[in-house]
Specification:
elongated, Immunoglobulin-like, L,D-transpeptidase catalytic domain-like, six-stranded mixed sheet, 37% strand
């Protein structure tokens, strides 16, 4: 097994590589003799500037094993100010860069990308079988990014601190299309108190979605680490900041509905708490047929204007409608909600809606008030299947299909140190 080297940071003390092992003296007519002790090599080379932030730091040794590797980063401006004597020190450093050491101790590679516009100092120590010790310090610079070359901070759901249902996906929406999706996938790590497997898919070119193999175990905390610093999301566009989001999975609420029965059953932590009479889509046309499948509840409104023009049926077209509905909960992006429908006299007896799930005012308000974003509604009994990318229908893909459409093609264990693949796309 590879082992990770995680070392406390210290401030850099030099700007060029320095070998601290003694060197042998040689006469002019003699061949130069190699210095005793292990020989350490570091890449990028000392003194280099303008290094791409997604370049891996590599340390290797001949004639010994690596015993200590520390990689530190500070902003270039802080470094320059310290060099000019305008400050007493280098200023606040970023967190040290962790890395993976090969099993035989001969090589080390950084786990994550580097910060743009920074000065990177690498401290490496090695020892040979005879106890000879070599230390090397190497410093180089990464190129800065600004303006259009800077990856904008993505919008993430759930938001930090939210409590959600067991079906909740992690949805990361970028402002610009992402080209290097595998690199981005391997820079986003999800951990949970109850271990499971999950993976990312891309419904479109700007959105990455993580879902677990099955629903989350209830009553636990989940953390999402977006290690986007130095990631080249698209050609020449790099991330400059990391971000951590923590959310809580609440109780397990699963609602089930077999449309021909005109009733929804709601269970909380395995116990039925309510049976709700409903009226679903007429089913005369595609648009007014309630979708069958696994719906994840998306958002809630105390009052909502429901206009069919928003789903492609403009005013004047057959089937057009515009109504005000109270206590609405979205279940898809094709216009489906659960909501109060006091005008529908067929609730509990017949399907008369335009595709939504109609309820009495009291039942609709109860459902609105007692559900969370991420709760699950499993619907059966209609001829229209929910598309996997319609709303949050992500469980419509089997786990095998979900993995197949992941850029890495591998599951991510939520109790691991990181994603299954490295951000650099290559190992030691």
């Amino acid at each position: 097994m590879n082992r990770r080297v995680r070392l406390a940071g210290r401030l850099a003390t030099g700007t060029v590589a320095v070998a601290l092992a003694a060197t042998a003296c040689t006469a002019a007519e003699e061949e130069p003799k190699e210095a005793p002790g292990p020989r350490i090599s570091i890449s990028p080379a000392p003194g280099e500037a303008g290094i791409a932030p997604n370049t891996p730091v590599r340390v290797s040794v001949e004639g010994g094993v690596l015993t200590d590797v520390t990689v530190e980063q500070v902003d270039r401006e802080q470094w320059a100010a310290a060099e000019a004597g305008r400050t007493d020190g280098r200023g606040p450093a970023r967190a040290p860069v962790t890395g993976t050491l090969s099993e035989d101790g001969s090589a080390w590679v950084s786990d994550w990308n580097l910060a743009p516009g920074g000065v990177v100092s690498v401290y490496a120590t090695a020892r040979d079988d005879g106890g000879e010790r070599t230390e090397v310090v190497s410093t180089f610079g990464t190129h800065a990014v600004a303006g259009e070359d800077r990856l904008a901070e993505p919008f993430v759901l759930p938001q930090d601190g939210q409590t959600v249902g067991v079906g909740m996906p992690v949805v990361v929406t970028f402002e610009e299309p992402v080209e290097n999706r595998e690199q981005v996938e391997n820079s986003m790590h999800v951990t949970s108190e109850e271990a499971t497997e999950g993976a990312w898919n891309w419904p479109n070119e700007t959105t990455a979605v993580f879902r677990p193999k099955k629903y989350w175990e209830p009553h636990q905390k989940v953390t999402v680490d977006l290690r986007l610093t130095g990631v080249e999301a698209s050609e020449g566009v790099f991330g400059t900041e990391d971000r951590r989001i923590g959310f809580e999975v609440g109780r397990e609420l699963i609602a089930t509905m077999h449309v021909p029965e005109h009733r929804m059953h709601v269970e909380v932590d395995g116990e039925r708490v309510r049976s709700i009479p409903v009226s679903n889509g007429k089913g005369e046309r595609h648009f007014n047929t309630t979708t069958s499948g696994i719906h994840v509840l998306m958002e809630k409104y105390s009052r909502l204007v429901m206009d069919s023009a928003t789903v492609g049926i403009p005013a004047g077209s057959p089937g057009y409608y515009r109504v005000e509905a109270d206590w609405a909960v979205r279940t898809s992006n094709s216009g489906e909600f659960t909501h109060a429908a006091p005008w529908n006299g067929s609730i509990g007896y017949a399907n008369r809606s335009n595709g939504c799930t109609n309820m009495s005012v009291s039942d609709a308000r109860w459902f609105h008030d007692n559900t969370l974003m991420g709760d699950v509604l499993e619907t059966t009994g209609t001829a229209r299947e929910l598309e996997w990318d319609n709303g949050w229908g992500f469980y419509q893909r089997s786990w095998e299909q979900w993995l197949e459409h992941s850029e890495t093609g591998e599951p991510q264990a939520t109790d691991s140190d990181g994603p299954p693949g490295g951000v650099h796309g290559e190992g030691l």
